[in-house]
Specification:
The structure holds two protein chains of two kinds. By secondary structure, chain A is an all-alpha fold. Chain A has two domains: 88 residues, Orthogonal Bundle (Rna Polymerase Sigma Factor, Chain: A), CATH 1.10.1740.10; 81 residues, Arc Repressor Mutant, subunit A (Orthogonal Bundle), CATH 1.10.10. Chain A is built from nine helices and no strands. By secondary structure, chain B is mostly helical. Chain B has six helices and no strands. Chain B is elongated, with a radius of gyration of 52 Å. Chain B is 78% helix and 0% strand. In chain B, helix 1 packs across helix 2, helix 1 runs parallel beside helix 3 and helix 2 packs across helix 3. Classes of the chains: A mainly alpha, B mainly alpha.
Chain lengths: 182, 157
């Protein structure tokens, strides 16, 4: 997904403390921020809480936002940092190991089985949770949010070289985790 | 190009980030190396997995909740401000009370030392209370007063 063209105007009003601009911003970005949080945290309640927290933080930080910067980049950074800081609620039924991966992947022995997108998401998310958070963030921003290396560097506040290295390592780890599972 | 070098480039290759020379060397190696080809295939399959994975949307009422919390956040910010400054307000009140007290004591002393004697103070109070000009049988300026002064002067001689 590409950033919207009219973000500049929204950003300008937002920096002036215009609450209606913030309401528009929430409606515009809620799905993308929530989606990002889902892939970072997996659990839907955690994702909802983190996404809400991120948007409220964004409002609190209006004064720090420079209107000439990319609004989505700034929002994503707050969202990623919120997820990195997020203390997950303890859930007794959450599986710690790869058994969930094998359960989902082997429920139908047929190799031609076509997975529903939800199942694929479950498999992917479970595997993503096993990656170190910084690597997960870089890969999710690249493959889910479809940002460029430069945009990811901007969001995560790291060099482009570090972005490439994290994505490469994340892919390698994911590949090993999912080998033979689908 | 060696396998170890190629494996480092797989991620950038699938992201179309290799320069022309690198890409050519990469594809030449992969064409002839089963191991690297397998690994490339796995990374490409991952990309397919990402492409077909679900894109989540915010739950119903999410935006409304955020905006409602914004209202609460603003109110609690106000109350936090007040709570913090309440202690300052109390301290200021105490200081003010102290100042008023000191001023009262100081001005009270000044008022007290303004009277020449206690007796005159009492007299003055009584006169004021009754609006009388008594305790002087022959007030100065009266006929009696003039007589007294004539007689008194004679008596004292």
């Amino acid at each position: 997904m590409r950033p919207f063209a009219d973000d500049a105007e929204l950003a300008r009003r937002f920096t002036q403390g215009d609450i209606s601009a913030f309401a528009e911003l929430v409606r515009k970005y809620q799905d993308r921020i929530y989606n990002l949080c889902r892939y970072m945290l997996q659990d839907s309640d955690d994702a909802r809480d983190a996404a809400q927290e991120a948007l409220l933080k964004a409002y609190g930080k209006i004064k720090e936002f420079r209107a000439d910067a990319a609004l989505y980049s700034w929002l994503y950074r707050i969202a990623v940092n919120t997820c990195l800081d997020y203390k997950k609620k303890a859930r007794p039924d959450q599986l710690e190991d790869e058994s969930l991966l094998s359960d989902v992947a082997s429920s139908d022995p047929s190799p031609e089985r076509l997975y529903q997108s939800k199942e694929l998401s479950d498999i992917l998310q479970t595997a993503l949770q096993k990656l170190p958070e910084e690597m997960r963030a870089a890969l999710v921003l690249r493959k889910i949010e479809e940002l460029s290396y430069e945009e990811i560097a901007e969001v995560l506040h790291i060099s482009v070289g570090t972005v490439k290295s994290r994505i490469s390592r994340a892919r390698d780890d994911l590949r090993r985790l999912l080998r033979g599972k689908f | 190009m060696k396998c170890s070098e190629v494996k480092e480039l797989i991620s950038r290759y699938v992201d179309d980030d290799l320069g022309p020379d690198e890409r050519e060397a990469f594809t030449l190696h992969v064409r002839d190396c089963a191991g690297c080809r397998t690994e490339l295939g796995e990374i490409q399959a991952l990309d397919t997995l990402f492409a077909s994975a679900e894109r989540f949307t915010a739950p119903p009422g999410f935006a409304t909740r955020v905006l409602a919390h914004l209202g609460e956040q603003q109110r609690s910010t106000f109350w936090s401000f007040l709570a913090f400054h309440r202690t300052l307000f109390r301290a200021a009140e105490l200081v003010l009370a102290l100042v008023v007290f000191v001023i009262g004591v100081v001005s009270g002393n000044v008022l007290m030392t303004g009277r020449t004697s206690e007796k005159q103070m009492v007299l003055a109070n009584v006169q004021t209370s009754f609006s009388l000009d008594l305790f002087q049988a022959t007030p100065p300026g009266s006929v009696g007063g003039a007589y007294v002064s004539l007689v008194g002067a004679a008596d004292e001689r």
